[in-house]
Write a structure and sequence with these properties.
Elements (H helix, E strand, L loop, with lengths): L3 E7 L2 E9 L5 E3 L4 H5 L19 E4 L4 E4 L2 E2 H7 L2 H10 L5 H13 L5 H4 L11 H15 L9 H28 L12 H10 L10 H13 L7 H10 L5 H12 L7 H14 L4 H9 L20 H16 L5 H14 L2 H5 L6 H12 L6 H21 L30
Helix pairs in contact: 2-9, 3-18, 4-7, 6-7, 6-11, 7-8, 7-18, 9-14, 9-17, 9-18, 10-11, 10-18, 11-18, 12-15, 12-17, 14-17
Bound molecules: s-citryldethia Coenzyme A.
S-citryldethia Coenzyme A binds next to α17.
Protein backbone atom coordinates (compact mmCIF):
# COMPACT_ATOMS: atom_id res chain seq x y z
CA UNK A 1 0.00 0.00 0.00
CA UNK A 2 1.08 3.64 -0.43
CA UNK A 3 0.61 6.75 1.73
CA UNK A 4 1.42 9.08 -1.20
CA UNK A 5 -1.08 9.99 -3.93
CA UNK A 6 -1.32 11.81 -7.25
CA UNK A 7 -4.43 13.72 -8.24
CA UNK A 8 -5.76 14.14 -11.77
CA UNK A 9 -8.37 16.79 -12.50
CA UNK A 10 -10.34 15.75 -15.58
CA UNK A 11 -13.47 17.49 -16.90
CA UNK A 12 -13.99 19.13 -13.48
CA UNK A 13 -13.64 15.91 -11.49
CA UNK A 14 -10.65 15.01 -9.29
CA UNK A 15 -9.27 11.48 -9.36
CA UNK A 16 -6.69 10.03 -6.98
CA UNK A 17 -4.02 7.45 -7.77
CA UNK A 18 -1.49 5.86 -5.40
CA UNK A 19 2.22 6.78 -5.81
CA UNK A 20 4.75 4.05 -5.09
CA UNK A 21 8.45 4.51 -4.34
CA UNK A 22 11.24 2.22 -5.50
CA UNK A 23 14.30 1.15 -3.50
CA UNK A 24 16.16 4.35 -4.41
CA UNK A 25 13.20 6.69 -4.08
CA UNK A 26 12.21 6.64 -7.76
CA UNK A 27 8.48 7.25 -7.98
CA UNK A 28 5.63 5.67 -9.98
CA UNK A 29 1.98 6.65 -10.24
CA UNK A 30 -0.13 3.49 -10.26
CA UNK A 31 -2.78 4.06 -12.94
CA UNK A 32 -4.21 0.53 -12.83
CA UNK A 33 -7.69 1.98 -12.18
CA UNK A 34 -7.41 4.96 -14.59
CA UNK A 35 -9.72 3.53 -17.31
CA UNK A 36 -12.25 2.27 -14.78
CA UNK A 37 -12.31 5.58 -12.88
CA UNK A 38 -12.02 8.07 -15.76
CA UNK A 39 -12.83 6.28 -19.04
CA UNK A 40 -9.44 7.49 -20.30
CA UNK A 41 -6.29 5.51 -21.20
CA UNK A 42 -2.77 6.96 -21.34
CA UNK A 43 -0.79 7.27 -24.57
CA UNK A 44 2.99 6.80 -24.28
CA UNK A 45 4.75 5.98 -27.55
CA UNK A 46 7.73 3.70 -27.01
CA UNK A 47 6.72 3.37 -23.36
CA UNK A 48 9.21 6.15 -22.47
CA UNK A 49 7.24 7.06 -19.32
CA UNK A 50 5.49 3.76 -18.62
CA UNK A 51 6.54 1.05 -16.19
CA UNK A 52 5.16 -2.42 -16.98
CA UNK A 53 5.95 -4.08 -13.65
CA UNK A 54 7.82 -3.92 -10.39
CA UNK A 55 11.08 -5.89 -10.42
CA UNK A 56 13.87 -6.75 -7.98
CA UNK A 57 16.40 -7.96 -10.53
CA UNK A 58 18.29 -4.99 -12.00
CA UNK A 59 18.55 -1.29 -11.13
CA UNK A 60 19.67 1.41 -13.57
CA UNK A 61 20.32 5.05 -12.80
CA UNK A 62 20.63 6.72 -16.21
CA UNK A 63 21.78 10.05 -14.76
CA UNK A 64 24.49 8.60 -12.49
CA UNK A 65 25.53 5.80 -14.90
CA UNK A 66 24.70 3.11 -12.32
CA UNK A 67 23.93 -0.52 -13.13
CA UNK A 68 23.33 -3.06 -10.33
CA UNK A 69 22.31 -6.72 -10.61
CA UNK A 70 20.38 -7.78 -7.44
CA UNK A 71 22.08 -4.90 -5.56
CA UNK A 72 25.65 -5.64 -6.66
CA UNK A 73 27.54 -3.01 -8.71
CA UNK A 74 28.27 -4.11 -12.28
CA UNK A 75 31.89 -2.96 -11.89
CA UNK A 76 32.45 -5.38 -8.97
CA UNK A 77 30.68 -8.29 -10.65
CA UNK A 78 32.61 -7.78 -13.91
CA UNK A 79 35.90 -7.61 -12.03
CA UNK A 80 35.42 -10.50 -9.60
CA UNK A 81 32.93 -13.05 -10.99
CA UNK A 82 32.51 -15.63 -13.70
CA UNK A 83 29.53 -15.34 -16.05
CA UNK A 84 27.97 -18.48 -14.53
CA UNK A 85 28.19 -16.94 -11.04
CA UNK A 86 26.41 -13.81 -12.26
CA UNK A 87 23.83 -15.91 -14.14
CA UNK A 88 23.14 -17.73 -10.84
CA UNK A 89 22.86 -14.36 -9.03
CA UNK A 90 20.32 -13.04 -11.55
CA UNK A 91 18.31 -16.28 -11.43
CA UNK A 92 18.37 -16.84 -7.67
CA UNK A 93 18.75 -13.34 -6.23
CA UNK A 94 22.01 -14.15 -4.38
CA UNK A 95 25.56 -15.02 -5.37
CA UNK A 96 26.16 -18.80 -5.16
CA UNK A 97 28.46 -20.32 -2.53
CA UNK A 98 31.10 -22.76 -3.74
CA UNK A 99 28.80 -25.81 -3.42
CA UNK A 100 25.91 -24.11 -5.24
CA UNK A 101 28.22 -22.90 -8.02
CA UNK A 102 29.75 -26.35 -8.47
CA UNK A 103 26.31 -27.98 -8.63
CA UNK A 104 25.07 -25.42 -11.17
CA UNK A 105 28.21 -25.84 -13.28
CA UNK A 106 27.66 -29.63 -13.22
CA UNK A 107 24.09 -29.16 -14.44
CA UNK A 108 25.38 -27.02 -17.31
CA UNK A 109 27.91 -29.68 -18.28
CA UNK A 110 25.19 -32.34 -18.07
CA UNK A 111 23.02 -30.40 -20.52
CA UNK A 112 25.72 -29.12 -22.88
CA UNK A 113 24.85 -31.41 -25.80
CA UNK A 114 21.96 -30.84 -28.17
CA UNK A 115 19.90 -33.73 -29.53
CA UNK A 116 21.82 -35.23 -32.44
CA UNK A 117 18.70 -34.85 -34.63
CA UNK A 118 18.94 -31.09 -34.17
CA UNK A 119 22.37 -31.08 -35.77
CA UNK A 120 20.74 -32.00 -39.08
CA UNK A 121 18.86 -28.67 -38.95
CA UNK A 122 22.15 -26.93 -39.69
CA UNK A 123 22.47 -28.84 -42.98
CA UNK A 124 19.35 -27.14 -44.31
CA UNK A 125 20.07 -23.47 -43.60
CA UNK A 126 21.45 -21.61 -46.64
CA UNK A 127 25.24 -20.90 -46.40
CA UNK A 128 24.65 -17.20 -45.76
CA UNK A 129 21.97 -17.79 -43.11
CA UNK A 130 21.89 -15.10 -40.40
CA UNK A 131 23.21 -16.52 -37.09
CA UNK A 132 20.44 -14.79 -35.10
CA UNK A 133 17.82 -16.40 -37.33
CA UNK A 134 19.46 -19.79 -36.79
CA UNK A 135 19.61 -19.19 -33.04
CA UNK A 136 15.94 -18.28 -32.65
CA UNK A 137 14.89 -21.19 -34.91
CA UNK A 138 16.94 -23.68 -32.91
CA UNK A 139 15.80 -22.33 -29.51
CA UNK A 140 12.18 -22.47 -30.62
CA UNK A 141 12.78 -26.07 -31.77
CA UNK A 142 14.11 -27.04 -28.34
CA UNK A 143 10.42 -26.95 -27.40
CA UNK A 144 9.88 -30.07 -29.56
CA UNK A 145 12.74 -31.95 -27.94
CA UNK A 146 11.88 -30.96 -24.36
CA UNK A 147 8.07 -30.74 -24.45
CA UNK A 148 7.76 -30.84 -20.64
CA UNK A 149 8.09 -27.06 -20.84
CA UNK A 150 4.98 -26.56 -22.95
CA UNK A 151 3.15 -24.93 -20.06
CA UNK A 152 4.39 -22.76 -17.26
CA UNK A 153 6.60 -25.18 -15.29
CA UNK A 154 6.74 -24.98 -11.54
CA UNK A 155 9.84 -22.76 -11.34
CA UNK A 156 10.68 -23.76 -7.76
CA UNK A 157 11.17 -27.49 -8.51
CA UNK A 158 13.02 -27.69 -11.80
CA UNK A 159 14.09 -24.10 -12.46
CA UNK A 160 17.81 -24.81 -12.11
CA UNK A 161 17.74 -27.66 -14.62
CA UNK A 162 15.50 -25.62 -16.98
CA UNK A 163 17.83 -22.63 -16.95
CA UNK A 164 21.09 -24.61 -16.93
CA UNK A 165 19.83 -26.57 -19.92
CA UNK A 166 19.02 -23.45 -21.92
CA UNK A 167 22.17 -21.52 -20.96
CA UNK A 168 24.32 -24.50 -21.91
CA UNK A 169 22.55 -25.54 -25.09
CA UNK A 170 22.34 -22.01 -26.50
CA UNK A 171 26.13 -21.75 -26.14
CA UNK A 172 26.53 -25.08 -28.02
CA UNK A 173 24.06 -24.02 -30.74
CA UNK A 174 25.96 -20.74 -31.25
CA UNK A 175 29.31 -22.51 -31.63
CA UNK A 176 27.90 -25.29 -33.82
CA UNK A 177 26.24 -22.74 -36.14
CA UNK A 178 29.63 -21.03 -36.57
CA UNK A 179 31.42 -24.32 -37.33
CA UNK A 180 28.72 -25.27 -39.83
CA UNK A 181 29.03 -21.86 -41.52
CA UNK A 182 32.77 -22.53 -41.96
CA UNK A 183 32.21 -26.09 -43.16
CA UNK A 184 34.37 -27.28 -40.24
CA UNK A 185 33.73 -30.42 -38.18
CA UNK A 186 31.78 -29.73 -34.98
CA UNK A 187 33.81 -29.55 -31.76
CA UNK A 188 31.78 -30.97 -28.88
CA UNK A 189 31.61 -29.47 -25.36
CA UNK A 190 34.05 -30.89 -22.81
CA UNK A 191 33.31 -31.68 -19.15
CA UNK A 192 36.71 -30.36 -18.02
CA UNK A 193 36.16 -26.86 -19.43
CA UNK A 194 34.07 -24.07 -17.86
CA UNK A 195 31.41 -22.08 -19.69
CA UNK A 196 33.66 -19.59 -21.50
CA UNK A 197 36.54 -22.02 -22.11
CA UNK A 198 34.07 -24.46 -23.66
CA UNK A 199 32.56 -21.81 -25.90
CA UNK A 200 35.93 -20.63 -27.20
CA UNK A 201 37.12 -24.20 -27.69
CA UNK A 202 33.95 -25.22 -29.56
CA UNK A 203 34.31 -22.14 -31.74
CA UNK A 204 38.00 -22.24 -32.61
CA UNK A 205 39.48 -25.67 -31.95
CA UNK A 206 40.08 -27.81 -35.05
CA UNK A 207 41.39 -31.39 -35.44
CA UNK A 208 44.40 -30.10 -37.33
CA UNK A 209 45.18 -27.01 -35.26
CA UNK A 210 44.38 -27.16 -31.53
CA UNK A 211 43.04 -23.88 -30.09
CA UNK A 212 45.08 -22.43 -27.24
CA UNK A 213 42.70 -21.21 -24.53
CA UNK A 214 44.25 -17.98 -23.20
CA UNK A 215 43.23 -16.98 -19.63
CA UNK A 216 43.12 -13.30 -20.70
CA UNK A 217 40.60 -14.09 -23.45
CA UNK A 218 38.51 -16.23 -21.08
CA UNK A 219 38.53 -13.42 -18.53
CA UNK A 220 37.50 -10.82 -21.11
CA UNK A 221 34.71 -13.05 -22.47
CA UNK A 222 33.39 -13.57 -18.93
CA UNK A 223 33.42 -9.81 -18.46
CA UNK A 224 31.62 -9.11 -21.75
CA UNK A 225 28.90 -11.68 -21.04
CA UNK A 226 28.43 -10.33 -17.51
CA UNK A 227 28.07 -6.79 -18.85
CA UNK A 228 25.31 -7.95 -21.21
CA UNK A 229 23.54 -10.21 -18.70
CA UNK A 230 20.58 -7.97 -17.86
CA UNK A 231 19.30 -4.45 -18.33
CA UNK A 232 15.82 -4.25 -16.77
CA UNK A 233 12.90 -3.64 -19.16
CA UNK A 234 14.78 -3.23 -22.45
CA UNK A 235 13.03 -4.14 -25.71
CA UNK A 236 13.99 -7.84 -25.77
CA UNK A 237 13.43 -8.47 -22.05
CA UNK A 238 9.99 -6.84 -22.15
CA UNK A 239 9.28 -9.02 -25.21
CA UNK A 240 10.16 -12.17 -23.25
CA UNK A 241 7.84 -11.07 -20.43
CA UNK A 242 5.00 -10.12 -22.79
CA UNK A 243 5.18 -13.31 -24.88
CA UNK A 244 5.63 -15.40 -21.72
CA UNK A 245 2.48 -13.87 -20.20
CA UNK A 246 0.44 -15.63 -22.92
CA UNK A 247 1.39 -18.97 -21.30
CA UNK A 248 3.70 -20.22 -24.06
CA UNK A 249 6.71 -22.43 -23.32
CA UNK A 250 9.92 -20.87 -22.03
CA UNK A 251 11.63 -21.67 -25.34
CA UNK A 252 9.05 -19.71 -27.35
CA UNK A 253 9.43 -16.73 -25.00
CA UNK A 254 13.23 -16.78 -25.25
CA UNK A 255 13.11 -17.19 -29.04
CA UNK A 256 10.96 -14.01 -29.13
CA UNK A 257 13.57 -12.19 -27.06
CA UNK A 258 16.29 -13.32 -29.51
CA UNK A 259 14.29 -11.90 -32.41
CA UNK A 260 13.75 -8.56 -30.66
CA UNK A 261 17.45 -8.31 -29.75
CA UNK A 262 18.35 -8.83 -33.42
CA UNK A 263 17.17 -5.31 -34.27
CA UNK A 264 19.88 -2.78 -35.29
CA UNK A 265 18.49 -0.30 -32.76
CA UNK A 266 18.96 -2.90 -30.01
CA UNK A 267 21.45 -5.77 -29.82
CA UNK A 268 22.13 -5.65 -33.55
CA UNK A 269 23.97 -2.36 -32.98
CA UNK A 270 27.26 -4.14 -32.12
CA UNK A 271 27.45 -5.47 -35.68
CA UNK A 272 26.31 -2.12 -37.10
CA UNK A 273 29.08 -0.33 -35.13
CA UNK A 274 31.87 -2.38 -36.70
CA UNK A 275 30.36 -1.96 -40.17
CA UNK A 276 30.09 1.80 -39.50
CA UNK A 277 33.73 1.98 -38.31
CA UNK A 278 34.85 -0.05 -41.36
CA UNK A 279 32.95 2.40 -43.57
CA UNK A 280 34.61 5.44 -42.00
CA UNK A 281 38.05 3.79 -42.17
CA UNK A 282 37.55 2.85 -45.83
CA UNK A 283 36.32 6.35 -46.65
CA UNK A 284 39.69 7.83 -45.83
CA UNK A 285 38.54 8.31 -42.20
CA UNK A 286 36.27 11.18 -43.21
CA UNK A 287 34.75 11.43 -39.69
CA UNK A 288 33.06 14.76 -40.34
CA UNK A 289 31.10 13.34 -43.31
CA UNK A 290 29.53 10.62 -41.14
CA UNK A 291 28.96 12.95 -38.20
CA UNK A 292 27.18 15.36 -40.55
CA UNK A 293 25.00 12.53 -41.91
CA UNK A 294 24.11 11.41 -38.36
CA UNK A 295 23.04 14.95 -37.45
CA UNK A 296 20.97 15.44 -40.60
CA UNK A 297 17.39 14.45 -39.76
CA UNK A 298 16.56 14.09 -43.43
CA UNK A 299 19.15 11.29 -43.52
CA UNK A 300 18.16 8.04 -41.71
CA UNK A 301 21.86 7.41 -40.90
CA UNK A 302 22.64 7.26 -37.18
CA UNK A 303 25.95 6.69 -35.40
CA UNK A 304 25.50 3.11 -34.16
CA UNK A 305 26.76 2.53 -30.65
CA UNK A 306 25.78 6.02 -29.45
CA UNK A 307 22.76 7.03 -27.42
CA UNK A 308 20.52 5.20 -24.99
CA UNK A 309 16.95 5.41 -23.78
CA UNK A 310 18.02 5.42 -20.13
CA UNK A 311 21.69 6.42 -19.83
CA UNK A 312 21.92 10.19 -20.21
CA UNK A 313 25.54 10.25 -19.13
CA UNK A 314 28.00 7.42 -19.76
CA UNK A 315 26.90 3.76 -20.06
CA UNK A 316 28.96 2.14 -17.27
CA UNK A 317 29.31 -0.98 -19.41
CA UNK A 318 30.92 0.98 -22.25
CA UNK A 319 33.49 2.34 -19.79
CA UNK A 320 34.46 -1.16 -18.67
CA UNK A 321 34.52 -2.58 -22.21
CA UNK A 322 36.67 0.29 -23.51
CA UNK A 323 39.25 -0.50 -20.80
CA UNK A 324 39.08 -4.20 -21.68
CA UNK A 325 39.63 -3.38 -25.33
CA UNK A 326 43.13 -2.08 -24.74
CA UNK A 327 43.98 -4.97 -22.35
CA UNK A 328 42.66 -7.71 -24.64
CA UNK A 329 44.25 -6.43 -27.83
CA UNK A 330 47.57 -6.14 -25.98
CA UNK A 331 47.19 -9.70 -24.57
CA UNK A 332 46.42 -11.02 -28.04
CA UNK A 333 49.13 -8.87 -29.58
CA UNK A 334 46.50 -7.56 -32.00
CA UNK A 335 46.37 -4.00 -33.23
CA UNK A 336 43.07 -3.11 -34.86
CA UNK A 337 42.88 0.20 -36.74
CA UNK A 338 39.13 0.23 -36.01
CA UNK A 339 39.91 0.77 -32.32
CA UNK A 340 41.72 4.00 -33.20
CA UNK A 341 38.79 4.97 -35.45
CA UNK A 342 36.38 4.23 -32.59
CA UNK A 343 38.36 6.30 -30.11
CA UNK A 344 38.65 9.28 -32.48
CA UNK A 345 34.94 9.11 -33.35
CA UNK A 346 34.01 9.01 -29.64
CA UNK A 347 36.30 12.00 -28.98
CA UNK A 348 34.76 14.04 -31.83
CA UNK A 349 31.21 13.15 -30.71
CA UNK A 350 32.05 14.12 -27.12
CA UNK A 351 33.01 17.60 -28.35
CA UNK A 352 30.03 18.08 -30.67
CA UNK A 353 27.12 20.03 -29.23
CA UNK A 354 24.52 18.08 -31.25
CA UNK A 355 25.44 14.89 -29.38
CA UNK A 356 26.25 16.48 -26.04
CA UNK A 357 22.92 18.38 -25.98
CA UNK A 358 21.10 15.09 -26.62
CA UNK A 359 23.13 13.12 -24.08
CA UNK A 360 24.44 10.75 -26.76
CA UNK A 361 27.40 8.79 -25.40
CA UNK A 362 28.96 5.46 -26.38
CA UNK A 363 26.71 2.60 -25.23
CA UNK A 364 27.42 -1.06 -24.50
CA UNK A 365 27.63 -1.89 -28.20
CA UNK A 366 30.23 0.69 -29.17
CA UNK A 367 33.44 -1.09 -28.19
CA UNK A 368 32.29 -4.72 -27.72
CA UNK A 369 32.63 -5.61 -31.41
CA UNK A 370 36.30 -4.58 -31.44
CA UNK A 371 37.03 -7.14 -28.73
CA UNK A 372 34.98 -9.87 -30.38
CA UNK A 373 36.89 -9.21 -33.64
CA UNK A 374 40.19 -9.55 -31.79
CA UNK A 375 38.99 -12.91 -30.40
CA UNK A 376 38.24 -14.08 -33.97
CA UNK A 377 34.45 -13.96 -33.62
CA UNK A 378 32.88 -12.95 -36.98
CA UNK A 379 30.92 -9.68 -37.16
CA UNK A 380 27.65 -11.45 -37.98
CA UNK A 381 27.88 -13.31 -34.64
CA UNK A 382 28.22 -10.23 -32.43
CA UNK A 383 24.49 -10.13 -31.67
CA UNK A 384 24.58 -13.86 -30.93
CA UNK A 385 27.23 -13.01 -28.30
CA UNK A 386 24.85 -10.39 -26.91
CA UNK A 387 22.11 -13.05 -26.74
CA UNK A 388 24.43 -15.51 -24.91
CA UNK A 389 25.08 -12.78 -22.34
CA UNK A 390 21.46 -11.61 -22.03
CA UNK A 391 19.98 -15.09 -21.64
CA UNK A 392 20.21 -15.22 -17.80
CA UNK A 393 18.49 -11.83 -17.62
CA UNK A 394 15.66 -13.02 -19.86
CA UNK A 395 15.29 -16.19 -17.75
CA UNK A 396 15.25 -14.22 -14.49
CA UNK A 397 12.56 -11.87 -15.81
CA UNK A 398 10.53 -14.76 -17.21
CA UNK A 399 10.59 -16.42 -13.78
CA UNK A 400 9.69 -13.13 -12.07
CA UNK A 401 6.80 -12.67 -14.50
CA UNK A 402 5.31 -16.16 -14.06
CA UNK A 403 6.05 -16.28 -10.34
CA UNK A 404 3.94 -13.22 -9.59
CA UNK A 405 0.14 -13.41 -9.92
CA UNK A 406 -0.02 -9.69 -10.82
CA UNK A 407 2.59 -9.62 -13.58
CA UNK A 408 1.49 -13.01 -14.87
CA UNK A 409 -1.73 -11.42 -16.29
CA UNK A 410 -1.52 -11.57 -20.07
CA UNK A 411 0.03 -8.32 -21.31
CA UNK A 412 -2.29 -6.37 -23.59
CA UNK A 413 -1.72 -2.63 -24.09
CA UNK A 414 -4.63 -0.42 -25.31
CA UNK A 415 -4.60 2.10 -28.21
CA UNK A 416 -6.26 5.31 -29.33
CA UNK A 417 -8.21 4.52 -32.53
CA UNK A 418 -8.01 7.33 -35.11
CA UNK A 419 -9.27 5.40 -38.16
CA UNK A 420 -12.57 5.81 -40.14
CA UNK A 421 -15.83 5.81 -38.17
CA UNK A 422 -18.55 3.22 -39.08
CA UNK A 423 -19.54 3.44 -42.77
CA UNK A 424 -21.99 1.61 -45.13
CA UNK A 425 -20.63 -1.60 -46.76
CA UNK A 426 -20.23 -1.24 -50.59
CA UNK A 427 -20.71 -4.49 -52.58
CA UNK A 428 -17.84 -5.33 -55.00
CA UNK A 429 -19.81 -4.40 -58.16
CA UNK A 430 -20.61 -0.93 -56.82
CA UNK A 431 -17.07 0.07 -55.90
CA UNK A 432 -15.51 2.81 -58.09
C1 LIG B 1 21.00 -1.46 -26.60
O1 LIG B 1 17.18 -0.44 -23.62
C2 LIG B 1 18.31 -0.94 -23.34
O2 LIG B 1 18.69 -1.03 -22.18
C3 LIG B 1 19.11 -1.47 -24.52
C4 LIG B 1 20.49 -2.01 -24.20
C5 LIG B 1 20.42 -3.26 -23.37
O3 LIG B 1 21.39 -3.57 -22.68
O4 LIG B 1 19.39 -4.02 -23.52
O5 LIG B 1 21.25 -1.04 -23.53
C6 LIG B 1 21.23 -2.42 -25.49
O6 LIG B 1 20.11 -1.66 -27.37
C7 LIG B 1 21.88 -0.23 -26.69
C8 LIG B 1 21.44 0.72 -27.85
C9 LIG B 1 22.03 0.18 -29.16
N1 LIG B 1 21.50 0.95 -30.31
C10 LIG B 1 22.26 1.83 -30.98
O7 LIG B 1 23.42 2.12 -30.68
C11 LIG B 1 21.57 2.44 -32.20
C12 LIG B 1 21.86 3.94 -32.24
N2 LIG B 1 21.16 4.57 -31.12
C13 LIG B 1 19.87 5.17 -31.40
O8 LIG B 1 19.14 4.64 -32.42
C14 LIG B 1 19.12 5.60 -30.14
O9 LIG B 1 19.98 6.33 -29.38
C15 LIG B 1 18.47 4.52 -29.28
C16 LIG B 1 17.60 3.60 -30.08
C17 LIG B 1 19.50 3.73 -28.56
C18 LIG B 1 17.61 5.25 -28.23
O10 LIG B 1 16.55 5.82 -28.90
P1 LIG B 1 15.54 6.81 -28.14
O11 LIG B 1 15.68 6.72 -26.67
O12 LIG B 1 14.17 6.58 -28.72
O13 LIG B 1 16.09 8.23 -28.53
P2 LIG B 1 15.59 9.05 -29.78
O14 LIG B 1 15.67 8.21 -31.01
O15 LIG B 1 14.30 9.70 -29.41
O16 LIG B 1 16.76 10.17 -29.93
C19 LIG B 1 16.68 11.41 -29.25
C20 LIG B 1 17.42 12.39 -30.16
C21 LIG B 1 16.83 12.44 -31.58
O17 LIG B 1 17.13 13.72 -32.12
P3 LIG B 1 15.97 14.92 -31.99
O18 LIG B 1 14.73 14.33 -32.65
O19 LIG B 1 15.81 15.13 -30.50
O20 LIG B 1 16.57 16.07 -32.73
O21 LIG B 1 18.78 11.97 -30.34
C22 LIG B 1 19.01 11.63 -31.71
C23 LIG B 1 17.67 11.42 -32.35
O22 LIG B 1 17.70 11.74 -33.74
N3 LIG B 1 19.81 10.38 -31.72
C24 LIG B 1 20.86 10.16 -32.52
C25 LIG B 1 21.34 8.89 -32.13
N4 LIG B 1 20.58 8.39 -31.14
C26 LIG B 1 19.64 9.33 -30.88
N5 LIG B 1 21.42 10.91 -33.51
C27 LIG B 1 22.50 10.34 -34.13
N6 LIG B 1 23.03 9.13 -33.82
C28 LIG B 1 22.47 8.38 -32.83
N7 LIG B 1 22.99 7.19 -32.52
Amino acid sequence: MSDKFAQLILEGKTYTFPVYEGSYGEKAIDISTLLKQTGHITLDRGYVNTGSCTSDITYLDGKAGVLDYRGYAIEELAENCSFVEVAYLLLHGDLPNEQELMEYRDLMSQYALIHEDMIHFFDHFPPNAEPMSILSTMVNSLHNFYPELTTHPDPTETFDSITARLLSKVRTIAAFSYKKSKGHPLIYPRYDLNYCENFLNMMFDTPTRPYKILPEVVSTLNKLLILHADHEQNCSTSTVRLVGSAGVSLYASIASGINALWGPLHGGAAQEVVEMLEGIYADDKDFEKYIRKAKDHSDPYRLSGFGHRVYKTFDPRAQIIKKSCDETLAALNVSDPLLDVAKELAERVRNDDYFVSRNLYPNVDFYSGIIYRAMGIPTNMFTVMFALGRLPGWLAHWREMIGNKESRRIGRPRQLYIGPTRRRFIPLGERK
